[in-house]
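Q: what sequence does this backbone want?
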């Protein structure tokens, strides 16, 4: 049995003891074990800050972007292996593994390209200088400088590839060393990618570290000038926020958490828009078995469309074979493990107590499995007729192939109900009335990190409700964690400090030169 070693202080280190198993969710086979027991995180963090940080910051942004390009080449060369690991450890079909693996490669490539065009060497200007005295003899210029601490990533199980690289791309481009702690259940893929990149000897020693499992002092060993980017459940985020390094010492903390995302069909009774919504809902329910933080959980339709949409979604879901991703014809694979399966089944039971079941894949889907005790759960579509006082539908995230259809009376009602998610990652809106789409965007933007507007013009070109594109902000207010990631070069802000520099125009001009700017 392979025990996945941890890469810290520029060397592979095995944790002590037997470790926790990493399992195949279909066969139950133990694929590897992880242990972080006995590791010295204080030494590991010191090494990253003192060795890797200065070595990275010696390079310009464009030089670091070239390192990202080299990483892309390594990941591309090993792509087939990553698909195989995803199949075995995440139970995902090829298309779903692609969202994670190819999504990671695409995001890294995006930052490699964007970074290659950066002219700055050591710091970035923020806006123009502002006069503070008469005749501009004294002025203020805001600048961003890379942090000199490290970036700790604590990641969720559902994106072992993309989850690492969407964060590491911006951190490494900024000149900040990275420590990744993947979720234990899917640590294997993250580990393999880090190993391939370490073996390729691309980055300065200590720039990319991995710790699998739960080491002592993961957070204790941080200091106030490090940063943490967390992805996972709101409960875990809340407990991490309470840690003294974050609560007391001011470690910058970004959280991407639960979200009750929505799809909204416009009030125009347009068959094209309805078709677009139905297609997207089915996709979101089934991709990665609904284990996406951005997945559609609530579907809002005009009351007059409720029955027709329920029927259309059910008809499409019926055609999807669910089961072992190794089997030909299976389009929807497994959840990540049996404990997630049990949590999803419990969520389904709770929703069933206060909602109608419109489609139940457990009895209506074709299921192709040899073994009964797997983590496969077919899709379930609920419906509620009392959305204003429903006890669960706006609050409970069932992190699997589960969504609820909800009728609305008028536009205002639809927007009010959508906002009841109290902060979400994304809402998608389907209509062929541009005025309505624009109104929806302006209204929903306050409670959503992203608003995805779909009409016939973009039917073929749009990137999907649930796909997180590096060009666009990823994150959401309130319940979604209040974090921000990606959004092009905006992502670099998290790994920089903002300072107001006050001085004479001549001195500020020197700073501007340092940033590669003319003035
Ligand atoms: P989770 O249980 O909160 O775990 C997330 C990470 O936190 C894992 O690496 C976990 O490690 C670690 N962790 C948990 N307790 C910890 C502690 N006390 N100290 C240090 N680390 C700790 O979440 P999950 O089950 O992996 O992921 C599912 C959830 O993530 C869903 O709610 C989903 O909505 C959310 N999610 C959000 C986004 C987003 O971008 N907003 C993306 C993906 C997922 P172990 O694995 O070792 O326990």
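A:
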């Amino acid at each position: 049995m392979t025990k996945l070693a941890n890469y810290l202080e520029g060397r592979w280190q095995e944790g002590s003891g037997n470790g926790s198993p990493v399992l195949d969710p279909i066969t139950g086979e133990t694929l590897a074990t992880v242990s972080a027991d006995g590791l010295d995180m204080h030494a590991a963090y010191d090494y990253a800050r003192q060795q890797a940080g200065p070595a990275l910051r010696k390079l310009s942004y464009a030089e670091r972007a070239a390192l990202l390009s080299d990483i892309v080449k390594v990941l591309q060369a090993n792509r087939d292996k990553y698909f195989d690991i995803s199949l075995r450890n995440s139970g995902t079909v090829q298309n779903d593994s692609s969202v994670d693996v190819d999504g990671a490669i695409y995001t890294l490539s995006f930052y490699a390209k964007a970074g290659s065009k950066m002219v700055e060497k050591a710091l970035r200007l923020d806006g123009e200088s502002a006069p503070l005295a008469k005749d501009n003899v004294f002025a203020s210029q805001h600048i961003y400088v890379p942090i000199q601490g490290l970036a700790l990533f604590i990641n969720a199980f559902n994106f072992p590839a993309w989850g690492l690289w969407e964060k590491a791309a911006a951190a490494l481009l900024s000149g900040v060393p990275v420590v990744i702690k993947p979720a234990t259940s899917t640590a294997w893929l993250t580990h393999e990618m880090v190993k391939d990149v370490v073996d390729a000897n691309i980055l300065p020693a200590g720039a990319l570290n991995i710790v699998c499992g739960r080491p002592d002092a993961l957070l204790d060993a941080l200091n106030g000038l490090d940063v943490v980017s967390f992805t996972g459940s709101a409960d875990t985020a809340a407990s991490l926020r309470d840690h003294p390094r974050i609560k007391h010492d001011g470690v910058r903390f970004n959280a991407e958490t639960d979200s009750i995302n929505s799809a909204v069909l416009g009030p125009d009774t347009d068959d094209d828009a309805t078709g677009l919504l139905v297609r997207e809902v089915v996709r979101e329910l089934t991709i990665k078995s609904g284990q996406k933080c951005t997945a559609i959980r609530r579907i809002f339709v005009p009351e007059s469309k409720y029955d027709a949409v329920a029927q259309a979604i059910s008809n499409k879901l019926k055609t999807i074979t669910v089961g072992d991703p190794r089997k030909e014809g299976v389009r929807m694979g497994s959840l990540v493990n049996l404990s997630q399966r049990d949590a999803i089944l419990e969520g389904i039971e709770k929703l069933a107590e206060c909602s109608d079941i419109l489609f139940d894949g457990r009895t209506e889907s074709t299921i192709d499995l040899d073994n009964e005790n797997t983590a496969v759960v077919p899709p379930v579509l609920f419906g509620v007729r009392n959305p204003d006082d429903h006890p669960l539908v706006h609050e409970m995230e069932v992190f699997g192939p589960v969504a609820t259809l909800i009728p609305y009376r008028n536009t205002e009602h639809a927007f009010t109900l959508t906002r009841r998610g109290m902060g979400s990652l994304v809402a998608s809106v389907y209509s062929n009335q541009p005025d309505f789409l624009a109104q929806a965007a302006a209204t929903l933007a306050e409670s959503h990190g992203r608003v995805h507007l779909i009409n016939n013009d973009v039917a073929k070109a749009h990137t999907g409700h649930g796909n997180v594109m590096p060009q666009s902000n990823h994150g959401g207010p309130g319940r979604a964690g209040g974090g921000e990631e990606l959004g092009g070069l905006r992502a670099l802000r998290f790994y920089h400090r903002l300072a107001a520099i006050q001085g004479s125009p001549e001195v500020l001009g020197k700073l501007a030169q340092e940033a590669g700017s003319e003035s």
